[in-house]
Design brief:
The chain is an alpha+beta fold and 410 residues long. The chain has ten helices and 17 strands. Helix 1 packs antiparallel against helix 3, helix 3 crosses helix 10 and helix 8 crosses helix 10.
Length: 410
């Protein structure tokens, strides 16, 4: 089975994760997909294959170096789940052959169109074969492109024993999209010196910086009284919550920030007169600014309580931290990935992730783990697409990394 066939097969599995189930994996479809992959890895001839009850699948491609030659054990990781933001059920992918430019009609019935007017990056892929959705679901390139690339690279190395490589471990985990992908990942069992997640976007991306992240729940207690007799008695929690919202800097939100700029992002608001709850995510690449952002929430909660005693309560929970501090001491692993890309005439695009990655949490668990492109764009929605040459290049990067490590370059 080739790379494209694998990918087209994988996206048919419904693996949308769900943060409300409090289970691992959070949805049964992820385990079904993992069991399918386990059989495929067995058929390819990989060794030490394990799949636990939480949906963590690991396997080994043994070294083919001469006895006594030792090189680092490396790993490649991708996640099984797709985003909760849009349905991944009944995905119906289509290949647009030799994209000629202009609009791509995804769905005639709904008029859904993938257009370079809205997504100018499309113009970078004129002449290439592109896999798109039918406009009703996401595609699942995040991260089934990564899964397909890793397995195809292992298949290629098996079919080409003349390519020398050390021991390679592959890992596929659930629930990355809900921030829990690394929670039960057994780094000791994985047994690698370093690894790469194949979970980035467009071709060339190489990332070893990500946001520091926290989630904040701000609750407001009110008092309901008949509105006709409410003067000096009613406390409307929704109005107080709105007061809290407008006290935060207007321009420090996702829609007004880029690059290394952090933000406060209100992701949900649930309320009535008697109780309102705001849920925010707090993000910043810089650890000091990140801590100050959390302090600002505490400051605003105190201000609210000064005006409305005992009205506001605050819960802040850190989610993950910037992996840069864990990667900088082992920057040779970034240099290896850059060299692999250059060998394939890819210009590395080293940039910060404006989000999170399993690699960040794994790095803090002792497994340095930067992130490499998988090729997809417009993740998490109906406009998601992936150019086939980008997937092929990502597969090639995996193979080249294996070669470089076997050459003894550190």
């Amino acid at each position: 089975m080739n790379l494209v066939d694998r990918f087209l097969q994988y996206v048919k599995f419904d693996t949308q994760s769900d943060e409300l189930t409090n289970m691992t994996p959070s949805t049964p479809g992820q385990l079904v997909f993992a069991e399918h992959l386990k059989k495929e890895l067995e058929a390819l001839g990989l060794e030490d294959i394990t799949l636990d009850e939480n949906g963590y699948l690991m396997a080994t491609l043994p070294s083919n170096l001469p006895v006594g030659v030792e090189v680092p054990t490396i790993g490649f990781i991708a996640h099984l789940d797709t985003s909760p933001d849009m349905s991944g059920r009944h995905v119906a992918p289509r290949i647009v052959q030799k994209y000629a430019g202009g609009d791509i009609v995804l769905n005639n019935a709904t008029g859904t169109t993938l257009s370079p007017t809205d997504f100018p990056e499309l113009n970078n892929y004129i002449g290439q074969d592109i896999i798109v959705t039918d406009g009703n679901t996401l595609l699942g390139a995040d991260d089934k492109a990564g899964v397909a690339e890793i397995i195809t690279a292992m298949d290629y190395l098996i079919q080409h024993p003349e390519i020398k490589h050390g021991k390679i471990r592959v890992g596929f985990n659930p629930d990355e999209e809900i921030g829990q992908g690394a929670h039960k990942f057994d780094v000791e069992q994985f047994g690698c010196d370093f690894a790469y997640t194949m979970d980035g976007g467009e071709i060339g991306e190489l990332e070893f910086e990500n946001f520091n992240a926290a989630v904040a729940r701000v609750s407001f207690a009110g008092r309901n009284v008949h509105p006709g007799y409410a003067k000096h008695k009613m406390i409307n929690s929704m109005r107080i919550a709105n007061q809290f919202v407008i006290m935060l800097p207007r321009w420090e939100t996702p829609e007004h920030t880029e690059g290394y700029e952090g933000f406060y992002h209100l992701i949900s608001m649930e309320g009535s007169v008697e109780k309102t709850v705001l849920t925010y995510i707090i993000r910043d690449h810089d650890r000091d600014r990140f801590e100050r952002r959390k302090k600002e929430f505490e400051h605003l909660a105190r201000k609210i309580n000064h005006e409305f005693p005992d009205c506001c309560s605050l819960e802040i929970k850190d989610q993950y931290y910037n992996m840069r501090e864990k990667i900088e001491p082992v920057m040779h692993i970034i240099e290896i990935a850059e060299e692999a890309m250059r060998r394939l005439d890819i210009t590395p695009k080293v940039q910060p992730i404006r989000g999170g990655t399993d690699g960040a949490q794994l790095s803090f668990k002792g497994l340095p783990c930067p992130n490499i492109f998988a090729g997809g764009l417009n993740f998490h929605g109906r406009y998601e697409y992936v150019p086939i040459p980008s997937m092929e290049k990502a597969t090639g990067v995996i193979v080249e990394i294996a070669k470089i490590v076997a050459e003894g370059k550190k």
